[in-house]
Amino acid sequence: MKVIVAKTAGFCFGVEKAVEKVYENVGKESLYTYGPIIHNEEVVKDLEKKGVQVINGIDEIDDITNGTVVIRSHGVSEDVYDKLKSKGLDIVDATCPFVQKIHRIVSKESMEGRTIVIIGNEGHPEVEGIKGWAHSDTYVIGNSEDAENLSLKQGEKVCIVSQTTFNFKKFKDLVEIIQKKGYDIKCLNTICNATEERQREAREIASKVDTMIVIGGKHSSNTQKLVEICKSECKDTYYIQTLGDLDLSMLGSGSSVGITAGASTPKKIIEEVHTNVRIKF
Ligand code: SF4
Questions:
Q1: CA distance 200 to 194
Q2: For the chain, how long is the longest CA-to-CA vector?
Q3: Using CA atoms, how far apart are residues 162 and 190, in angstroms rounded to an integer?
Q4: What is the rounded average pLDDT of the residues 10-24?
Q5: DSSP letters of 120-139?
Q6: What is the signed CA dihedral for 97, 226, 196, 275, rounded to 10 degrees?
Q7: Any catalytic annotation for residue 16?
Q8: What ligand 1 atom has the least distance to the C-alpha of 165?
Q9: Which of 109, 126, 128, 196 is an active site residue?
Q10: pTM for the complete prediction?
Q11: Pick from 41, 70, 147, 253: most CB atoms within 10 A?
């Protein structure tokens, strides 16, 4: 049995940097992360044991009187920075530079009068953060129905950006629908290189194996996109969080297995899955 592990599987540099920053600060009194640092329960539990607490929304900042807050790679809205500063809390900013770039674009373009359209998943923390930098109306488009339903006035000045982890092919399809509506569009593909590369490699591997395994947290948007892509190429695609979810008997009698993983999946989990698949065959 041939087992192919994607070279791009696992932590991207933005997530790696964010996780490192939290561990570097462990030991400080009253250490918080704004939201779970990554979509991985094991890592979050380990940090919890080390005294790191999670802030689950802007209102919870009211109850904090001192300490350090690490902002994760997803970034946050301008309001959140303002509130943290007004409470005198120390900020360790681990927002990924790719996300910071979107914040700058959205702030500038909205100030210049463009309506902001974000191609992404409504409610995702990165998207919520991006929305919070706009000074004009914002719309989130996650699927073709949303794109068809977008109704602005003819000639409206629009700036389109994307959530960094969105599916590149889907982004192009949705932009195409919006482009037919007669707006004055400035479109910026802000999907990050790491995501594009990971999706491209996942598609390539899935197209040539009998079974595909995608490892990642159940709330991880970039992992869900990988599953979507792999399923379109390989019908035997399985979405697991850890080795515990893997039923080796489901790998069937094929002659090849591919493995990839989302940006929040620690190397240790990928290696465990890889080793066990190899032992089985
Ligand atoms: S997926 Fe891309 S944008 Fe998101 S943290 Fe990783 S490198 Fe940054």
A1: 10
A2: 61
A3: 5
A4: 94
A5: S-TT-HHHHHHHTT-SS-EE
A6: 90
A7: no
A8: 1
A9: 126
A10: 0.86
A11: 70
